[in-house]
Amino acid sequence: LSLQLQQYASKYAFGYRIRDFHTGNDFGHKQNRDLHGVTRGQYHILLPDGRIQNVIYHADDTGFHADVSFEGATKH
Asked: Residue ranges per domain, the chain?
């Protein structure tokens, strides 16, 4: 029973996005974890310079691994 409960509790998924045209805020995050303990996700945020930073990642027994990219041009 405890093994089944542990497997159930360790598997999850969530996501959200906030996009407020009035304030200019734009950010979001999605993440899930499988029964093998691997967590995968991605998030984005609108930076003060006008670019969007995107991060796609996974975390497993070997650590946290992220790929970071940027969209758009810098605005001053």
From this structure: 2-71
